[in-house]
Amino acid sequence: MVLTNEYILQRLTEKFGEAITQVEEPYGLLTFEVPKELNLKVMQFLYDDQELGFRFLTDLCGVHYPDQLGRELAVVYHLHNMVQNVRIRMKVFTDVQQPDVYTATSLFQSANWQERETYDFYGINFVGHPNLKRILNVEEMDYFPLRKEFPLEDQTRIDKDDEMFGRGGSI
Fold first, then answer.
1. Strand bridging mode 56-64 / 86-94
2. Confidence (pLDDT) at 141
3. Which structural domain range is residue 57 located in?
4. What is d(CA 117, CA 136) in angstroms, rounded to the nearest whole number?
5. Three-state DSSP state, 92
6. How would you class 6 by CB atoms within 10 Å of its CB: exposed for 0-12, middle for 13-18, buried for 19 or more?
7. Is 83 a member of any domain?
8. Mean pLDDT within 29-49
9. Which of 91, 83, 99, 112 is nearest to 42 (CA)?
10. Residue 170: inside a domain
11. What is the CA radius of gyration of the chain?
């Protein structure tokens, strides 16, 4: 059987119903959103189902959407069926005030490092992770550097010429 986006979506909606939302296919990649409470159940279904067989976690990353009140942080999972070479993208959103998402380490060992990196840079707390601590930044750091809460550059710098960056001056 050839695995198509339509079939994958059909199987997901049969199992999870209206919990599967925001379905898109950018560049042919099936992309959908699930509530954060169901992230493990959906991934377990995609993993265990003999016809779907998404048994490889290609990537897991965080995204910060400061303008989306109540869903400022996202975790994006890229899953791969290596037998049929089919990839899908799953997203879960969480509140920046309580950024808890269930860990996928029990299902994918590769999630261990990826979740630690996502925690380190975005502050997403992966509930149940066996060793959730900073992996690239120093432990003393009291902020999460990839959140969009900070300006991209130091506004107090006087040692740079804005004209060199296309700002200011006449054109």
1. unpaired
2. 86
3. 5-147
4. 7
5. strand
6. exposed
7. yes
8. 96
9. 91
10. no
11. 19
